[in-house]
């Protein structure tokens, strides 16, 4: 039985999405020390209004989020996160598969995302799901995936 649903976010979801993202990213604060995390400073109401945004719900609570942008030849996963209480049930993978489906509806075959170099668990997950590192500097790893 599927333990969660993914749906388009509405403005009414902004506060709950913000809380979910804060919880998801706060687990990285110790690893990243003084480094700022842009997802912790985002106005999620503005994100919902301006970008394709989806939420994952479980038992009526928002436990994940996905924000994308679409360029002419590339779908960009701008922000993706899962609440710590909902990790380990396949939700991160499901959100990435959902993102691929959104790209396919626009006939886009290349996807891109970026993550911090110190978030090695994220990099491993993305690589396991077919993403490849295409660029890296001292802060950011950029990854891409070809989809059909």
From TrEMBL:
Annotated SUPFAM superfamilies: Acyl-CoA N-acyltransferases (Nat) (SSF55729)
GO MF annotations, alphabetized: acyltransferase activity, transferring groups other than amino-acyl groups
Domain of life where this protein originates: Bacteria
CDD domains (alphabetical): NAT_SF
Gene3D superfamilies per record: 3.40.630.30
PROSITE patterns from the UniProt entry: GNAT
Keyword entries, A-Z: Acyltransferase, Transferase
Protein name in UniProt: N-acetyltransferase domain-containing protein
Lineage: Bacteria, Pseudomonadati, Pseudomonadota, Gammaproteobacteria, SAR86 cluster
């Amino acid at each position: 039985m599927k333990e969660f649903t993914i749906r388009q976010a509405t403005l009414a979801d902004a506060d709950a999405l913000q809380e979910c993202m804060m919880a998801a990213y706060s687990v990285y604060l110790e690893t990243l020390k003084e480094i700022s995390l842009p997802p912790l400073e985002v106005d999620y109401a503005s994100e919902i209004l301006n970008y394709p945004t989806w939420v994952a719900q479980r038992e009526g609570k928002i436990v994940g989020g996905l924000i994308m942008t679409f360029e002419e030849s590339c779908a960009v996963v701008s922000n993706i996160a899962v609440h710590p209480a909902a990790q380990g049930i396949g939700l991160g993978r499901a959100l990435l598969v959902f993102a691929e489906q959104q790209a396919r509806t626009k006939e886009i075959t290349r996807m891109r995302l970026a993550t911090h170099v110190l978030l090695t668990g994220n990099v491993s997950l993305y690589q396991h799901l077919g993403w490849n590192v295409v660029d890296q500097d001292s802060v950011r790893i950029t990854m891409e995936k070809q989809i059909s």
